[in-house]
Known about the structure:
- The chain is α+β, with helices and mostly antiparallel strands.
- The protein has 5 domains: 5-142, Roll (ibrinogen binding protein from staphylococcus aureus fold), CATH 2.30.310; 163-261, Helicase, Ruva Protein, domain 3 (Orthogonal Bundle); 291-416, no CATH class; 431-549, no CATH class; 555-642, no CATH class.
- The protein has 16 helices and 31 strands.
- The strands form 9 sheets. Strands 20-21-23-22-24-27 form a 6-stranded antiparallel β-sheet, sandwiched between helices. Strands 6-7-8-9-10 form a 5-stranded antiparallel β-sheet. A 4-stranded antiparallel β-sheet has the order 1-2-3-4.
- The two termini are 50 Å apart.
- 34% of the residues are buried.
- The model has no long low-confidence stretch (mean pLDDT 89).
Amino acid sequence: MTLAGIELRYLVNEIGKRIEGYYVSNIYGISRNSILFKLHHPEKPDILLMFSTFGFWITTRKIEQIEENRLVKRLRNDLLRSKISEIKQIGTERIVYITFSGLNQEFILVGEFFGDGNIVLCNKEMKILSLLHSIDVRHRKLNLGLNYELPPLGGLNIFEITLKDLSDIQSVTTAAVRWIGRTLGLPTKYAEEIMKLANTSPQSPGNSLSGNDIEKIFAATKSITEKVVNGVHEPLLVRDEKISDVLPFPIGNIENKNSTRVTSFMEGLDLLFTENLLEAGKTSQSNSVTQKIEEFEHRLEEQTKAISKVNQRTGLISAVAKSLLEFASKGVASLDDPKILQMFKEQNISLEKERGILFVVVNSEKIKINPESSMPAIASTLFNESKKQLKAIETIESEKRKTEKILEGFRIQADVAKDSVVFTIQKKREWYERYRWFLTSDGFLSIGGRDASSNSSIIRKHLEKDDKVFHAQIVGSPFFILKNSSNNSVSSVMETAHATVCFSRAWREGLYGLNAYWVNPDQIKTAAPSGQFIAKGSFVVEGTRNFVKVTTLQLSVGLYQKGDSYSLMCGPPEPIEKNCIYYVTIEPSGLEMVEAAKKIKLEFLKFKEKEAVVKEISIDDFIRVLPAGDSHIVESGIGIKSN
């Protein structure tokens, strides 16, 4: 399936609305032609945006990397932490510009979704900084350092078409459906549907159409365009042996096709395009292994043929030797005897002399004999040669067994390569999972900010009268809220204070012995005193502060189960051990966050009961729960909830 220009306009509008206020938190190379953007918002769930050479769409499926992508390193350098400020389509073309803004810089990512496709990164002056495919053709040239040039644009702009524009069809002899498709940049399915709605024969020559026909075609064109672009959809996923497609609404003879309803046009694209990426990935992963399989299958075939050929030759040599013994027993004493020569002729055996040496030639195998020897002696020479050939068969069979073993290894490798191309569904998170969070030993929810934006969010949106607010005595501390804690649970207060310090700058710098304090909600003021300024994520704290001494820096990462779903929880060791199935305890210093996350996941995988669950959790999710800074593992174990 290739996207139509009107479908792309719908995606541009829909994606633009949904990603407003998001920034780029990570970029992944999926294949050589596809890139995945992870978009984050301080208050909303993360969004995964796939950008490929055949389209872009919001996905709920995170595909593990299939191939290296040459653009990813540059994209990460330039686009991480930036916001998408604009998405626009170039006219009706299958070309999209995405503008990324941040740190007083602007970058434009160009997607060309036609032909082989292309992805081009430009600065705001449209100078090419990186691109997937260089182009050097008559009408344009794309390469590093050059300015990006659009391809020649053709046809009419379907979004601005007038009745007068459409009247040009009357000057051609081309079939109306073909002219509509080519001139308006529409695939056949839409051109045929327009003619069907206009109640006009699709094969009618353009110059045979009346003014009334053109008016009906114009109305049908506008109707279909508006339905597609404005999201008036009843989407279907259509599959047949030749091609699969996603339709925004029933088109043509849909009742004769294998179609299923999907929740949205975007979801249908996600299903189909993800399948296409996975299939391409499986092919790519197995291609090199397939070549090896073919090589060793050929070797195995040749070895089998060799064994058969040697077996046949050995049997014939042995049979000739037996015949010579029989002739000897009947008084035949020479190889020149007519009876022996007739036997040789019948068995396709010949006698050849080279440099005075006589050879018996059996199936192209030359066996040296002494013509002066007796007939039994010559037969014995042939028997010995037969035994020698049998030993050769043993050698070939040994090599054949080795080939079979290697071949089986490559076949397993091919299956593993195909199975390794997988995706995970992006699970729906609880509202508090966008923040730091854990459940205290007494079962209360404790949430904390990750940055200035989420600090602001938890105070402004989630602070209620029965909560307690925590902050550490250090610049660079998050705010934590202990929810519904009016009963003054001492352990919950101590645990939340501990988490507040550990998730502060103290972890990264290894600062022990800090205090945290808590206050009531009415002591938090969101506005600065008159004439003063407070930074985003900061608040004014009035009145008495209740201090808590935090003597250690130690956190645990746990696997938490709620119903049928699993998530990672990170907090002080005691509540994590109490509320989770497994846990890994960490302290400051040691491994960088990515390496620490990998080590923690490996520790989790040692608990075989939930191995499949842990495999589904991405390294990014492990990184997300860790405190900022280096960490090392000090302990791992089974939590109380596993019992």
